[in-house]
Request: fold
Amino acid sequence: MFDENYKKAMENVNVDGHTKEKIFDKITLKEEVNNHKNPAVKWRVAFACAACIAIVLGVLFVPKNTIKENVESEKSETIVSDGTVAKVLTVSKSYDEIYELIKPNGDFSVYDGTALDNMLVYEEETDMETTPTTPAKPGATTSANMNGSTSNSKSEVDTNNSTGEKDEFSNTTEQVEGVNEADIVKTDGEYIYYINDTTLSIVKADGEKSVLLSQTELSHTQSKDLYGEMFLKDDRIVLLKTNYYMNSGEKVVIEIYDITDRTAPKKIAESCQDGYYNSSRMVGNYVYLISNCHINVQNIDKDDPATFVPTTETNGVCEAVPADSIYRYEGENYTNQYTVISAFNYKDGILSDTSSLLGGTDSIYCSQNNILLTNTRYNVRENSDNESETTYTTEKTVVSKLAISNGKIEYKLSGEVDGRLNNQFFIDEHNGYFRFVTTVTKRVEKRYTFDNSEHQVVSYEMENSAALTILDSELKKVGEITDLAKDESVYSVRFMGDYAYFVTFRQVDPLFSADLSDPKNPKILGELKIPGFSEYMYPYGDGLLLGFGMDADETSGRTKDLKLSMFDITDPANVTEQDMTTIDGCQYSPALSSHKAMLVHSGKNLIGFAATDDWRNEKYMIYKYTGDGFEKQAVITVNDQYNYYAMTDIRGLFVGDSFYVVSDAALQVFDIDTFSQILSIKF
Reply:
C-alpha cells in the first residue's frame, strides 16, 4: 500500500519548465545565503539534516488521523487582550490522553497531484524582498543577530567584558548577564579548555610559559557520537554530546568531568534526554538542556509510554517524562514532535526536573528567571473581504513561557506575535515585559477562472516588513509598531534598556532606533541608511554601538566584503555612523553566523574574529577603535588553506597580558601589546 501510494504521488507531480527554472534559481540563491547564515557547530549539522529528512517524510506521508484536535481540559483558559490571544498551557492528565492525541490510524494519505494539474501558477515579480547573495557554509540552528537584557538584573552591556578584577581574562560572548552559554573554548583565567570532536585539551595559560597539560580522549559508544560544546564552572566541565541511533533517533548527552587534576580529567557522571540538540543554558548550578524529539508514530505501544513520549536518563536510570509534565497548546493540532527541557545539576549530572511540550521549538531566549520557547507557524491563512483573493500571513510565532528557579521548571503561558524570529537574539526581557522584532511576510493570492478553460490561474504578490511587538508578563500584547521597512528583512537587533536598535536590509542598511520606555506606546526615533548591513551589534563603551556585517552595492544590494561600523548612539533620535572600515578580500567569517565566534571587549579595546581571504586562507583579524577610526592590530595566519569546518572552531581570547588563538591544529600565543607570536602549541 505504501509503495503504491508513493509511486502514484510521484507520477502525479508535474512541474512545467518555467517553474523548475525558478525553483532551481531560488535553491541556488538560498544555498549561497545559508552558507553565511548558519552557525558553525559541526556536530549539529549531521543531525539537523537527519531531522529535516524526518520532517519531509512526515509531511509527505502523514497518517490521516495522526494529527488530532486537542481534547477539552479542566485547566484550559484563554485570555484575550487587544486582539492577541494568550493561552494557558494545558497539562496532560495521563499517558492514555497523550496516546490518543498522536496515535496513527494506519492509513496513509498522499497528495495525488491532481490539484497541480488543474492550476497554472504565476508569481508576480512585485517588490518582494530579495535576500543578498552572501556566500557561506552549511550548518544547523538558528543564529544571526544579537540583543540582550534581563528583567531582574541590569541590562547586558558587553558580555565579552570580564567582570573579574582589572579585566584579567575574556569570556564567551553571551546574550544575557548571569546566563552562561556553552562554547567550544572556555577559560577561567588560569587554564584554557578546548573541545574538538573527540578530544578535550587543557592548557596552562601562562604566556610564553604556557603548556599543554592534558588531552583526554572522550568516550564513544558508536561511530556517530559527536561532541559539540561545553560549560565550565569551578572544577567541573559539562560536555554536550549527541548520540545518533539509526533505529531509535537521537539523544543529547551531558557528561560531567571532574577537572580538579587538570592533567587527568575524570568522567564522573552521564545523563541524557531524547531528541536532537536545540540549545542550552547554565543558570546558577543547573544546566537547562533543550532538544526537539520526533516520535515514530508507526512504532508505538499504548502500554509502553517510552515509545510515544520522550525519555530521560541519569546515570543509567531511564524514565519517560511524566504525563503531568507534558504540556500542549489548548485548541491546537498535534504532530509527532516534542520539545524536551530538562535541568541537570552541573556537579553530578543528576536530573533536577524535566518537562515537555507537544510541538517543536525553533529558538529560545533565557533570562535568570524565565525561558521562552518559540515556534514559527507557516502559511497561516487570513481571508480577504474580496472573494477573488486571500491574504496569507505566512508566518506567526508562538511563544511559550517557562519559569525556572534552582533547577525547577514550570510552564506558564503561551502567546503569539506576527512574523518570524531569526533566532534568540531577536527576543528580550526587560522590567517584566518581553520584546520581539520580527520579519513579517504577507502573500496575497489571486485566482482567475476563464469560461473557455478548465484551468485556474493563480498569482501571488509578496511583501516583507518589520514589526516590533511588546508582550506583558502574561504574554498579552500591550504595544507594537508595524509595517516598518517595506520589502526588507530584519538582520540584527540590539536591545539596550529602554531602547532598541535593529537593522533591516534589501539594498541599503536602515538602522532603526526605538524608544520602548512606555511599553504600551513604543516609538521609532530615527532611521539611518547606509550601504550594507550589520549581522551583529555590540555596545562598545558609552554612546557607541559596534556593527559587524557585510558591505553591499547600493544599487543591486549584492554583498561585497566584511564590514565594521561604529555608530554614535549618544542621541538615539539621531544615530550616526561615526566610522566604518571594510576588510578587503574577506567575504566570510564564522562570526557572521555565531555570536560566540566574535570577541568584543571595549575595556581592552579588542575586536577579534576569524575570516577567510578569497576563500583560500584562514586568518584571525584583530582591530581596535581609536575614536578616529578602526585600526588593524594583527592578521594572524591560522591555516594556509581554507577548510570551513575547521574554521568554525577558531576562537580568540586573552588571559592577562597574552592573547591566544585556538584552532583545531594549535594554540598560538601572542603578546597582547605587540601581537608578536611568543609560542605555538600543537594539538
